[in-house]
Amino acid sequence: MNLENRLKSVYNKKIINTSFFKGNQLPVFWLLIAPSVILITAFILYPVFNTLFYSVYKWNGFGPLVDFQGFRNFERIFSDQRFWNALKNSGIIVIFSIVFQLPIAFMLALIISRNNSKGIIVFRTIFFLPFIFSEIITGTIWTFIYHPTNGVLNYFFEVFFPNANYTGLLSSPDTVFGAILFVVFWKYFGFHLIIYVAGMQGIPKEYYEAARIDGAKAHHILRHITLPLMKPALQMSLFFSIIGSIQIFDMVWAMGQGDPVHAGETAVVYLFKFAIKQQKLGLGSAIAIIIFLICLVFNIFYQKVINEEKA
Amino acid sequence: MHKKSSLIFALSILFSVLLIFSCGQGAKTKGDEKVTIEFWHLDIDDTMAPVWEGLAADFMKANPNVTINITVLENEAFKSKLTTVMQSGDPPDIFRSWGGGVMNDFAKSGLLRDITDEVKNNWSSKIGAGPIGVYSYKDKIYGLPYDMGGVGMWYNKELIAKVGYNEPPKTWSEFIDCVKKLKAAGVTPIALGEGDKWPGHFWWVYLAVRLGGKEAFDAAVERTGSFKSESFVKAGQLLKELIDLKPFQEGFLSANYGGDQAGAMGNGKAAFELMGQWAPAVETAASEDGKGIGDKLGFMPFPAVEGGAGKITDVMGGGNGLVLGKNAPDATIDFLKFLTSVESQKKIITSPIGGIPTALGAEEAMTDPNLIAVNKAVSQAGYFQLYYDQYLPPAVAAVVLDSTQALFAGTMTPEAVAAAVDKAYEDEM
Q1: N or C: less crowded end of chain B, CB within 10 Å?
Q2: Is B394 on the interface with A (CB under 8 A)?
Q3: CA–CA separation, B211 vs B164, rounded Å?
Q4: B3 touches chain A (CB under 8 A)
């Protein structure tokens, strides 16, 4: 049943007294929704349309908008190899999350969700811990760990592989993105794990007992009980993972701002460097519009395909 | 009925709007009676911030009608927040600036207060034309420096003596020899925090200054020449030869200046660094024992390049100053006068902020022989070049910084660096 039908049924059953919003109660209706309408307009709709407007100008943010560029800002971005590299990096984070992070978290959740011994709880807490740190703190911690001369990793190499010539994973264009990817995994893995564990613990034990009495094997149970009942949790974690991956910024910024030589830049880091650091607000707005459209397309796809399936 | 509902709708919107904006309302009192000056700086350090507080307190004591509100922000946060308030058209009354391209952008948009007449006719101290020039745009003065110095080669006397140098190398080829000898002796020849990018761009700019002199730069800026001209390409090639010797500490591409580069020097682990007048103070702060290398630290001008048009006396540098926002009350000019007076400058340079004073006469208070040497180099400079990352507009500066980092990483050729800088400059002009 989709949302529209559901609303209709609610309306028909008169669960909500619709007469309340008619006639002399109408002002109350407006009064109630005014704050959200104003806030959304002022802080979401207005900036979005403003950004769209700025994106066709060359403008450093000071003084009037005079230098109209048409679609030239977009042309410049699409012909910039750095943009494609940043977009590729963001894409890799998305794919990496879907292909590795979520399935591994799911499998681990299967193992630990039915077990509430003290050891497992400690284990779960340790996995969840990185998610509690703010992005900037996470980035700073890992900058220390990866540090070429004073870092923990350097110490590790000195002790166990004295001939390895470790020079810092964030110091080379070849390794910087891999190093960031690992931290992304480390930080968000626990978050998805906890969503899955919570979801699995919400499935009534009776289903499993009944299935076992009927002679179902482990893979039958997984296929016909756990997976279907975990669908809402999976959908939510997928959504967070994809939108979060596209928007990832703070942590990358803290780990060397996507440098050396732009090798670790993500789409939003690229945006920030142009719009804020270089004060190219017009060009930056155009980049923001592109990222916005990517998120929008994904969101529509998600609503249409993934959410519809639920009905 | 309908009328009433729309009235309530309108009122509710009005109410919400008032609610939102009532928080952001900060009234400024102007006129003869009470004046408030908004003062922004970035010396967030525990020992430095009180120096400004003290100076502001002294000024307020002498001018009881003036209140000075100080906002202190960390360097990067300062730049971001300043950009935001500038874009909203409401600059602080007096704020920290490096002059050059960023300040010029503000001036172009009418966001700064012109203080030319006051500085020329009615100022308390004498400040050289060179330093004032850094805070001028199209012959109008918008602020003044309280510190102006030069970038040069800082070296560890003990480490270079180890490989037979009692005097530091004077030319580029001697310098390269010295680097090779240090490398062979197992000493890190050069400390570099290239993660921050600007420390590395000093090398490229200084080589260009030595090779092409003032003429090459002026020609490139005025578009009678270009950044693709020989001296800029050659600067990249000479730098590439140095980079290929691998003279820097491990992992220098992600290292920062304040901790890694200054730490390597301050702990006596590297022989050279190319840095400004603040180097001794930052080295001391970054050293493990909190003392730095003391007397073992020497200063010399950037080596002369054989066959270059520039002289060894030409200096690339810059400093720190204060600029006035467009709405600054008149009392702000008096405050700047007070801060750039000989007495205040003596207080600043003998405090943890340090630096090299701009008011003539204040240099008497300097005690560090290295800083006196920097001051001598700056005052004798025939050609004073502000660092490119400050002189050029931010968009071009970013390309200079990115491209030189790519040269250090080996992903761009010297020719490509020169071409990228030239293209960025062409786009911006």
Answers
A1: N
A2: yes
A3: 28
A4: no
